[in-house]
Specification:
With 121 residues, the protein is mostly helical. It is 80% helix and 0% strand. α1 packs antiparallel against α3 and α1 packs across α5.
Length: 121
């Protein structure tokens, strides 16, 4: 059970990272339209929110190591596919991104696949 809590934390941190990166990209793109690639990346890498994403990625890696202490990789890894479900959902909520009916169907297939992989184990 403890491993699943770590995986839940990993999923939350992964979604956090993607949403923050997109948010900061929108921020810098809107305020600095003529900026070159190197300057853009420097602004991004030194942004405190982006630094928090780097930290959250390190924490997620630690959680992954702790999760694998008590559970099989073949059992836990399919849960990582849920990021492909959660990120589009949160992108729609926070940024108004469109999620088509076909995408929703695909996301449901991912959830079904993770469910089957877990049950089959």
């Amino acid at each position: 059970m403890e491993s699943y809590l770590y995986v839940l934390g990993i999923l939350a941190l992964a979604v956090y990272g993607q949403i923050v990166i997109k948010s900061r990209i929108l921020h810098y793109s809107a305020s600095r339209s003529a900026i070159d690639h190197v300057s853009f990346l420097l602004w991004m890498f030194f942004d405190p929110w982006i630094i928090s994403v780097f930290v959250s990625t390190a924490v997620a890696a630690a959680f992954w190591m702790l999760a694998l202490r008590h559970a099989d990789l073949s059992l836990l890894y399919p849960f990582m596919a849920l990021t492909f479900v959660l990120v589009p959902v949160f992108a729609a909520l926070f940024f108004g991104e469109k999620v088509s009916t076909l995408q929703i169907f695909g996301l449901l297939i991912i959830v079904a696949g993770v469910s089957l992989a877990t049950i089959a184990h």
